[in-house]
């Protein structure tokens, strides 16, 4: 089942002689349950692509379809709602609200929609991510790795069609980086979560089932590893 499709996606910044082409004709399809790494050096276009996939930005040309929805047809308000309900976003910096407990941080996307959590699914997420005993703690009382796990749980709570991770280990030491990648792999396997992760780290890329390599805004490699 196809979760994500990009058709000739192009992103240009500036105008006239000051144009910068960040993405230049991206064609991409991701199926349900895939764990995909987009690998590229700084300036390759990977962050721009992730922002477009998450409806944070719009392409200059082309089309992006996520779970059957054409993102280009959404206005700003619709895009924000779609992003909250259908796309989980995990960044290098955890973006947890410091005055809320871990549990309230995780449940925040549901609270914004005035929805109650499914208790069994909530328990599965926090148990899978190893933070079931940290729910009443504040973010400042957690290690960096634990904060990132809480951020991942928050991204998963709405059962998103797509989880997007932007350099999720970039702010962590080696041990915590290993744990976060293991948690993402576990959520991929246990919850059948579709994940697209961007990184410049080739070692992290080896953990994925599929590696797409970007260079100068173009896909130059698409390798299925396992």
Structure description:
By secondary structure, this protein is of the alpha/beta class. The protein has a single domain, classed as P-loop containing nucleotide triphosphate hydrolases (Rossmann fold, 3-Layer(aba) Sandwich), CATH 3.40.50. It is built from seven helices and ten strands. The protein has helices at residues 46-53, 76-86, 102-112, 119-128, 144-156, 174-190, 202-205, and strands spanning 2-13, 20-31, 35-39, 61-66, 69-70, 87-90, 162-166, 195-199, 210-215, 218-224. The strands form two sheets. The chain has a six-stranded mixed β-sheet, with helices on both faces. A four-stranded antiparallel β-sheet has the order 2-1-4-5, with helices on one face. A hairpin with a 2-residue loop joins strand 4 (61-66) and strand 5 (69-70). Helix 3 runs parallel beside helix 5 (144-156). The chain is globular and about 55 Å long. The chain starts with a strand and ends with a strand. The model has no long low-confidence stretch (mean pLDDT 91).
Number of distinct helices: 7
Number of domains: 1
Which regions have little confidence, pLDDT < 50, spanning 5+ residues? none
- Strand order across the largest sheet: 6-7-8-3-9-10
Shape: globular
Task: Please state the average pLDDT score.
Answer: 91
- Based on secondary structure, the structural category is alpha/beta
Which CATH top level class fits? Alpha Beta
Q: Approximately how much beta-strand content do the residues carry?
A: 25-35%
Biggest sheet record: 6 strands, mixed
The end-to-end span amounts to 18 Å
Radius of gyration equals 17 Å
Strand segment count: 10
At the fold tier of CATH, the topology name is Rossmann fold
What CATH architecture would you give? 3-Layer(aba) Sandwich
């Amino acid at each position: 089942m196809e979760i994500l499709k990009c058709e000739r996606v192009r992103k240009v910044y500036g105008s006239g002689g000051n144009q910068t082409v960040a993405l230049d004709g991206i064609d991409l399809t991701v199926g349900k349950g895939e764990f995909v790494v987009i690998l590229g050096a700084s300036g390759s276009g990977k962050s721009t692509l992730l922002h477009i996939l998450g409806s944070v930005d719009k392409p200059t040309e082309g089309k992006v379809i996520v779970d059957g929805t054409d993102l280009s047809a959404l206005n700003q308000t619709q895009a924000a709602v779609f992003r909250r309900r259908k796309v989980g976003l995990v960044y290098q910096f955890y973006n947890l609200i410091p005055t809320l407990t871990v549990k309230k941080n995780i449940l925040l996307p549901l609270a914004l929609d005035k929805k109650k959590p499914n208790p069994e699914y909530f328990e599965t997420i926090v148990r899978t991510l190893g933070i079931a005993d940290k729910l009443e703690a504040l973010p400042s009382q957690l290690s960096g790795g634990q904060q990132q796990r809480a951020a991942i749980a928050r991204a998963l709570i709405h059962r998103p069609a797509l989880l997007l991770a932007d350099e999720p280990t970039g702010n962590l030491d080696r041990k915590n980086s290993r744990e976060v990648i293991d948690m993402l792999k576990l959520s991929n396997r246990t919850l059948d979560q579709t994940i697209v992760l961007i990184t410049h780290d080739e070692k992290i890329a080896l953990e994925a089932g599929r590696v797409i390599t970007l260079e100068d805004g173009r896909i130059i490699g698409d390798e299925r590893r396992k």
